[in-house]
Amino acid sequence: MKNLTRRQFGKGAAATAAAACAGVSLPRLAWGETATLSYPRGFLWGCATAAYQVEGGAKDDGRGPSIWDTFAHTPGKTFHGETGDVADDSYHLYKEDVQLMKALGVSTYRMSISWSRVIPDGAGQPNPKGLDYYNRVIDELLANNITPYVTLFHWDLPQALDGGWQNRATAKSFADYAGYVTKKLGDRVHHFMTTNEFVCFTDLGYRYGQFAPGLKLSDGECNQIRHHAILAHGLGVQAIRANTPSGTQVGLAENAVVFVPVIETPEHVAAARAATRIGNAPFLTAVMEGKYPNEYLQHEGANAPKVQEGDMKAIGSPVDFVGANIYVPLYARADDSPQGFAVEPMPSSYPHMYSPWLTLGPECIYWGVRNVCDLWKPKAIYITENGTSSDDVLTPAGRVEDVDRIMYLRDHLTHLHRAVKEGYPVQGYFLWSLMDNFEWADGFSKRFGLHYVDFKTLKRTPKLSAEWYKDVIAKNAVV
Ligand code: PNW
């Protein structure tokens, strides 16, 4: 027999199967229809983006530089030295982008504000032209019946802030900025998130050097930076409440580590819950409990953060919702160690999507919701991000057949449905992302969008996944 490559074999098999099935109608299964997983009426379907990843217009209308401008322009820091100078040029094309959303049928859009567009030096004099851009975007969204959910900080810290997150004063500057922006937007925006993903702008930026500002500081310094970050969140919550009408919903978007029980038995379920509390000690646990768990403080010893009077009270300011950015699982199991759990190393054969870090374990979205809700009983929880990169190829016919992205999304929405059905207060889902964009250190090499963006012409093309998501939204169900 001729030696076939796997791909050739696959093609041959597909052709054979197609021929065999032509004209054959399969008998209907006796017990009825295909299972349809309906979501509750009023469930919110949305898309998410972030300012530096989509806006471009880096120097337009008085925008000041952020640490991401500096980092991306430093040789060797991002893929092929790519930057967010232009990105998707949503700064100029936002009306077109709102029409993309309208065509999908989403009812909400999660976007972020560029701090240095609104306050170029991070503190002090605001730039009214910067704010005007957000006024235009928000008015355009509302005119199209799309509800804005606004993140105040998605990593693009103003460069001018002395010492960045190393400086405790940055937390106070953030609160001033948050109060200022929400006072201006709070008449039309009713949902705000303070910060996005603490670990990415603290540890990845200051401990591991992979993200801006690219530093590799010590554990102790990093713990202090983490503390300033959660303090900024807490002071931010207070500032937003002081500047917006009552009823404004305030939360955060956090990628808490998700622990899935290795097997769904009571002891492993309890282990996954305990792992969630300890594994997220410096961030979500501190925010939800208003204190650092003793285990964390003991473990860090002399490296533990220096906490000032009143900090923990501010950090624990009640939130109206938790936003969970969920992409990947870790597995926890019960053991007889003092903490009662162990985290399983991932086997080298564990599958992943196009980005190597994007391991595929769709049950993480269920356990992410369940662990957070069982531990802290938030009033509401949103999936503020979920999605995947794919090696998307635009065919000559102008199509992108991203069946792997559809698989990823369908699997996750299937598992999210279980959480909704079990009564966890999941209010909505924001797919990352509306369109391909600047994927941080990966530059434009990793595409996460429902719309393919040609970064030379900036043309947006809906992928097959956009058609799929539109159908999910129209049916309010995953089939
Ligand atoms: C998020 N992880 O980052 C960010 O909020 C987005 O800005 C980003 O584009 C998107 O996810 C895709 O990467 C993450 O290692 C970075 O689990 C790392 C992880 C998760 C999310």
What is the tally of helical segments? 17
The CATH class label is Alpha Beta
* Mean pLDDT level: 95
Strand-residue proportion: 5-15%
Give the terminus-to-terminus CA distance. 41 Å
**What portion of residues is helical?**
25-40%
CATH arch. level architecture: Alpha-Beta Barrel
Quickly give the structural class. alpha/beta
Q: Main β-sheet: number of strands, strand sense, barrel status?
A: 8 strands, parallel, barrel
What is the CATH topology?
A: TIM Barrel
Q: What best-fitting shape do the alpha-carbon axes yield?
A: globular
The largest beta-sheet arranges its strands as 2-3-4-5-6-8-11-12
CATH superfamily: Glycosidases
Regions with little confidence, pLDDT below 50 for 5+ residues = none
Main attributes of the structure:
three-stranded mixed β-sheet; globular; 479 residues; alpha/beta; eight-stranded parallel beta barrel; TIM Barrel; binds 4-nitrophenyl beta-D-glucopyranoside
Describe this structure in a few short sentences.
The chain has 479 residues and is an alpha/beta fold. The protein has helices at residues 6-21, 51-54, 67-72, 90-104, 115-118, 128-143, 169-185, 198-201, 203-207, 219-243, 266-279, 281-289, 294-300, 311-315, 364-376, 403-421, 464-475; strands at 37-38, 44-48, 108-112, 147-153, 191-196, 249-254, 259-261, 321-325, 330-334, 341-344, 381-385, 426-432, 451-453, 460-462, 477-478.
Description:
The chain has 479 residues and is an alpha/beta fold. The chain has a single domain (35-478), classed as TIM Barrel, CATH 3.20.20.80. The chain contains 17 helices and 15 strands. The protein is globular. The mean pLDDT is 95. 4-nitrophenyl beta-D-glucopyranoside (PNW) binds at residues 50, 53, 196-197, 200, 255, 325, 327-328, 357, 385, 432, 439, 448.
